[in-house]
Design brief:
The protein has about 120 residues and is of the alpha+beta class. The protein is about 25% helix and about 20% strand.
Amino acid sequence: MNRAGILALMVVLVACRSPKQPENPDAWQKIKLDFKQIDAEGLSGPVKGKVVVNYEFCIPAEEKYWRQVRKTDSTARKNAGKGRVGCVKNQWLIIGNTHQKDYQRILFQLACLPYVEQIQPTYWE
């Protein structure tokens, strides 16, 4: 293929790409963590006593939703109970943490999932 053919193919490929979906800023409203208290490493607290920040949310109790969450957040774990977020029957309580690369982006992607209603901090008592 000559240069003109390659250029034409590139133009066609770019033109055929689907446009990127705009981000929904409302998803940030679902996240109830105070990002001002969390550093770039996803940790919170005094310099000599930093800890991870855990968060929780509910998903429908179906494997397809669990796979989607795990693909997005490698720290996510299924837990029993309703948590502070108030999972109901036929929902799984999911707990993850911020000590991971791009944790804010991950939280945003989780909040964009239509079945995630709210993401709250987890307090271990």
